[in-house]
């Protein structure tokens, strides 16, 4: 490990438990999970300039090119009350990035369950992995990948969903480490209300496609046309079916194409 970038000016004021930066790594989440098993403290952070084996939800590849994006994994040790709201940790990271982007004058949204949209296109994704012991969450690793510059956006033919970068929407260069610090600061604030009604209200206020008809596919089921309603206390999402009935789901994905719904 070599700290080739001086991140102290960005991170020292945040009161992190510890942090490690890698010019190149396989996966920040993998390293964070190992570090957590070895006793990494609450608020320990793993950062990388480049990921060679980054992954998103469903073991899909997440590409992190040198100098183009943010690749971070944050280690949290939930309190018992926080552990009862484990599904909210994905939104914790997403809402915090949304707040950081809002401070820059951009309006982002959270496409349930883990994609952040900017100008209707995917700009970031969250992957949360947890260590459970005796039916209790002991450690949560929150992985967040952000397309900062256009070099972070994969070729169009490889995408499942239209993608963009922060700089493309803002129209000017972005200090990715300042964006990181702003996001981490927001995570600290949102964590304070993680178990509250205010957190759920914020989630729904930034829920992408709310009130719109979309194509939704539950795990191992056929896609269907539904209207996005809201996220519930337990993190499940509710949809309205064409016949007026309500579908509630904890798994699945809103997909782009309406064909076959």
Considering the protein shown, what is the CATH homologous superfamily of the largest domain? Bira Bifunctional Protein, Domain 2
Total helices: the number is 7
What is the CATH class designation of the largest domain? Alpha Beta
Structural class call reads alpha+beta
* Largest beta-sheet details: 7 strands, mixed
CATH architecture of the largest domain: 2-Layer Sandwich
In spatial order, strands of the major sheet run: 1-2-3-7-6-5-4
Morphology: globular
CATH fold assignment of the largest domain: BirA Bifunctional Protein, domain 2
Low-confidence stretches: none
What percent of residues are in strands? 25-35%
Order of helices and strands: HEHEEHHEEEEHHHEEEEE
The domain tally reads 2
Quote the average pLDDT.
91
Q: N- to C-terminal separation?
A: 48 Å
Number-wise, the strands total: 12
> From the alpha-carbon coordinates, what is the Rg to the nearest angstrom?
18 Å
Roughly what percent helix? 10-25%
Overview in brief:
24% of the residues lie in helices and 31% in strands.
Topology record:
Blueprint: H1 8-11, E1 18-25, H2 28-37, E2 44-51, E3 69-76, H3 80-83, H4 89-103, E4 108-111, E5 115-118, E6 121-133, E7 136-147, H5 166-170, H6 176-191, H7 197-205, E8 213-217, E9 224-231, E10 237-240, E11 246-249, E12 253-255
Parallel strand pairs: 1-2
Antiparallel strand pairs: 2-3, 3-7, 4-5, 5-6, 6-7, 8-9, 8-12, 9-10, 10-11
């Amino acid at each position: 490990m070599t700290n080739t970038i001086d991140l102290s000016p960005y991170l020292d004021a945040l009161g992190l438990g510890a942090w490690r930066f890698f010019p190149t790594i396989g996966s920040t989440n993998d390293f964070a999970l190992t570090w957590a098993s070895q006793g990494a403290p609450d608020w320990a952070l793993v950062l990388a300039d480049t990921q060679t084996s980054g992954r998103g939800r469903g073991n899909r590849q997440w590409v992190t090119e040198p100098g183009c994006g943010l690749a971070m994994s944050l280690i949290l040790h939930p309190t018992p009350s926080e552990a009862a709201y484990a599904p909210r940790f994905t939104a914790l990271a997403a809402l915090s990035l949304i707040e950081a982007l809002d401070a820059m004058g951009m309006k982002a949204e959270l496409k349930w369950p883990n994609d952040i949209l900017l100008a209707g296109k995917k700009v970031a994704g969250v992957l949360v992995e947890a260590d459970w012991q005796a039916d209790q969450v002991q450690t949560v690793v929150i992985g967040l990948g952000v397309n900062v510059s256009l070099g972070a956006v994969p070729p169009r033919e490889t995408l499942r969903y239209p993608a963009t970068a922060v700089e493309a929407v803002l129209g000017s260069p972005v200090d990715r480490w300042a964006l990181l610090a702003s996001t981490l600061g927001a995570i600290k604030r949102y964590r304070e209300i993680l178990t509250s009604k205010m957190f759920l209200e914020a989630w729904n206020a930034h829920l992408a496609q709310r009130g719109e008809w979309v194509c939704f596919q539950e795990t191992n089921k056929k896609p269907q046309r539904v209207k996005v309603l809201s996220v519930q206390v337990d993190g499940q999402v509710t949809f309205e079916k064409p016949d007026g009935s309500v579908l509630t789901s904890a798994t699945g994905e809103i997909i782009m194409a309406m064909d076959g719904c």
